[in-house]
Specification:
ribosomal S6-glutamic acid ligase activity; 4-stranded parallel sheet; 8 helices; about 300 residues; ATP-grasp domain-containing protein; Rossmann fold; nucleotide-binding; metal-binding; D-amino Acid Aminotransferase, Chain A, domain 1; alpha+beta; Dna Ligase, domain 1; 5-stranded antiparallel sheet
């Protein structure tokens, strides 16, 4: 099987996927999202990777198409319809527009518990929404990653200052979220909408962010003892339509109730392999093989 990974090229994660695929006789190729070139004319729509054929691939895995995602989604739709190419994650094939608002809507509509949240685009909107929250609150960029541009604010004045800064720096959607007392979060890795492993991420002393990139530490989390968290993560990945996901869950220290924080469609898996010993890369390849077998050779 020939597999194209969009947005993953030269790093440890791509190397792990390549090695696991190579063991099974698969050819895995990574590309930058910027490599896409499409020639369109009457009766001809030809996407390539800078003149290299895309249609020869059996499976396309969206890992991180980034800001060029809309162009890649259109291309994937074409490849799926024209050549029956398998596409992972299917979330991107016309089901809905991936955004924080759509994620919140889907979770709300599916009965999935998540912290109360508001999405705004300007500091001028703070007054209209602040009455719905108790301080402290979490403020973050809607498309933020690795704990960057995430703040815990204690009052309205500080909230306005942070929102104004984010608005000026990025101009993108801003999320205000209720703060849930916790001792870290849990990253549940799902493949084919099934939880295959989990790790606990504990923030360093004096920090509220649990991200490893922000100094947090990781440890194995035994999902077999927490069926409610396993079911919640699987339900969230199904609702979002994300086949391979890193589902972040937080547990309220006041009543042990779990909440979904995020369903990440481009999850890092080196950490969970390190702390749990689970061969995530191998399980991803297994899933690709299952899809290929189910859909038949093209």
């Amino acid at each position: 099987m020939k597999i194209l990974v969009v947005g993953l090229v030269e790093n440890e994660q791509m190397d792990r996927l390549w090695r696991e695929g190579y063991k099974r006789g698969h050819n895995i190729v990574g590309c930058y999202s910027s490599e896409l070139v499409v020639l369109a004319e009457l009766n001809n729509f030809l996407p390539t990777l800078r003149s290299k054929k895309i249609e020869d691939f059996d499976l396309l895995y969206f890992w991180a198409p980034g800001k060029k995602r809309w162009d890649w989604y259109a291309t994937a739709n074409y490849l799926h319809k024209k050549y029956s190419m398998i596409v992972v994650n299917k979330k991107n094939l016309g089901r809905y527009n991936p955004s924080i608002l759509e994620d919140l809507y889907v979770q709300s509509d599916s009965g999935i518990d998540f912290p109360k949240s508001a999405v705004i685009f300007s500091v001028k909107s703070v007054n209209s929404i602040v009455g719905n929250f108790k301080f402290p609150v979490i403020v973050k960029m809607a498309n933020g990653k690795q704990g960057k541009n995430v703040y815990k604010v204690e009052n309205k004045k500080e909230l306005k200052e942070v929102v104004a800064k984010l608005e000026k720096d990025t101009g993108e959607a801003i999320v205000i979220r209720e703060f849930i007392p916790n001792d870290g979060d849990i990253r549940v890795f799902t493949i084919g909408y099934k939880a295959v492993g989990a790790m606990k991420r504990t923030p360093k002393e004096g920090e509220f962010r649990s991200n490893i990139s922000q100094g947090g530490t990781g440890s194995k989390f035994d999902l077999s003892k927490y069926s409610n968290i396993k079911k919640l993560a699987e339900k969230a990945s199904i609702a979002a339509g994300v086949e391979i996901a890193g589902v972040d869950v937080i547990i309220d220290l006041r009543d042990n109730k779990p909440y979904i924080l995020e369903v990440n469609p481009g999850p890092q898996f080196m950490g969970i392999e390190k702390y749990t010993g689970i061969n995530i890369a191998g399980k991803i390849i297994n899933y690709f093989e299952e899809l290929y077998s189910k859909n038949g050779k093209r």
